[in-house]
Amino acid sequence: ATYDTVITGGTVANACATFKADVGIKDGQIAALGLGLGDAQHVIDARGKYVLPGGIETHCHIAQESSMGMMTADDYFTGSVSAAFGGNTTIVPFAAQQRGQTIPEVLQTYDDRAAPKSVLDYSYHLIVTDPTEVALKKDLPAAFARGITSFKVFMTYDKMIVSDEKFLDILVMARENGGLTMVHAENNAMIKWMVGRLLERGYDAPKYHAVSHPAAAEVEAVRRGIALASFVEAPLLFVHISTDAGARAIAEARMDGRMIFGETCPQYMFLTADDLDRPGVEGAKFCCSPPLRDVQTQTDMWRHLNAGSLQLYSSDHAPYRFDKSGKLSTGDTPPFKTIANGLPGIELRAPLLFSEGVQTGRITLEQFVALTASNAARLFGMGHRKGAIAIGYDADIAIWDPEKTTQVTAAGMHDNMDYTPFEGWELNGWPVTVINQGRIIVDGGELKAKAGDGSFIPRKPFDPTGFLPPRAPEMAQATNFGAKLF
Ligand code: DUC
Ligand code: ZN
Ligand code: ZN
Ligand code: ZN
């Protein structure tokens, strides 16, 4: 047969266009787009369905220890399976350095965790908490050489935080090697000061978690991060933006031609801090950092995604069960300060955006593709092979049935969690068939792939094309970019 698989009769959408075409797949790649393609071993009837690039989830915590040392509930099998059932074909979780660990040790650890288990294609972002000379000069450049071209640093958490000086070191190292730095931007001192004042007064219920992480802490850190990245002319991506003012600072920097990017997450668009205020410790299920905000923020985040101030929409899947292994590890009524930070949601990320965005007319189908796949592919060095339905690209495809409605329950999810923050939600539209490099991963509600079927994807350097040189001339002089002094 000419093709291994042909998907017939569907509506194909990319980030820039929607059209009717059959899709021919051969040797794991998209080999043809057209009507009346030749014969195939396997035909998938997609009439009435959307044929979209598979989702690329670039912010999720899988088989990773938290800042408090707690292992996530999902490993690379359950994490990737849950991602696949939610329409994703590639995941880029974090490989987190614990202080004292070398970068090669970290990568070996995560290769061992991922390779035998992932059903989907994967890569990692390296979380750098200990930027030693060896790491900066030798080990991180070596990570680039194997296609790991993004890093995350923290401006908060005593066990993770890097000083502004170290932050500059990492930004310059990334710039020199063609990397993209990601940052968790919250002011550590403001949060610690708030926690102290709250606990002093006996306010330790889950709802005070949100109070202890004020919007102002995010805004301060975003502005400082922009200043630091601009100073050394390095690209910087702010993850999990949860405030209008933070997103506006990013938009303003972008208008100045700076290589600044932003991401938000479903929790800031669909939940609020009121969810923390539930009987007993139920609110612990909604503890994440940055915390849930308010209804106005939900509208703000939709607007920032529409306006392009924020380019990425990721789950920040950080699964900790509602039991002793997770949220309740410090007792049945844990003070907010000791509750593991994070919400599960890798499976619902794209379905939430499809149901509440595409189906309600808040965004177009093309924007949905950009936000769930194409933008992440381009930012993270995979735009040459993923994030589009195009000839020669990886056959990474999610076939969505816009008519399929789903009642969300924890039991219906494929992660290793015992709750979902979206329990009871009714979602319109669901990915019914998911294909990764031509392999059928999910079809008709069933898993068709095995642990270890996914491959590590070496990524290309960050591409700064299209960004203007900074407007402020003192910065170029200060860092002498042209002379590569650093
Ligand atoms: N940062 C994340 O990105 N996820 C969970 C908790 C955190 O601090
Ligand atoms: Zn079939
Ligand atoms: Zn973070
Ligand atoms: Zn995260």
Describe the overall structure.
By secondary structure, the chain is an alpha/beta fold. It contains 13 helices and 21 strands. The strands form four sheets. Strands 3-2-7-18-19-20-21 form a seven-stranded mixed sheet. A seven-stranded parallel sheet has the order 10-12-13-14-15-16-17. The longest helix is centred in the middle third of the chain and has 17 residues, at 215-231. It is globular and about 70 Å long. The termini are far apart. The model is unreliable at 480-486 (pLDDT under 50). The chain binds dihydropyrimidine-2,4(1H,3H)-dione and zinc ion (3 copies). One zinc ion (ZN) binds next to loops. Residues 50-440 form the Amidohydrolase-related domain. Pfam families: Amidohydro_1. It comes from Litoreibacter ponti. Its cofactor is Zn(2+). GO terms for molecular function: hydrolase activity, acting on carbon-nitrogen (but not peptide) bonds, in cyclic amides; metal ion binding.
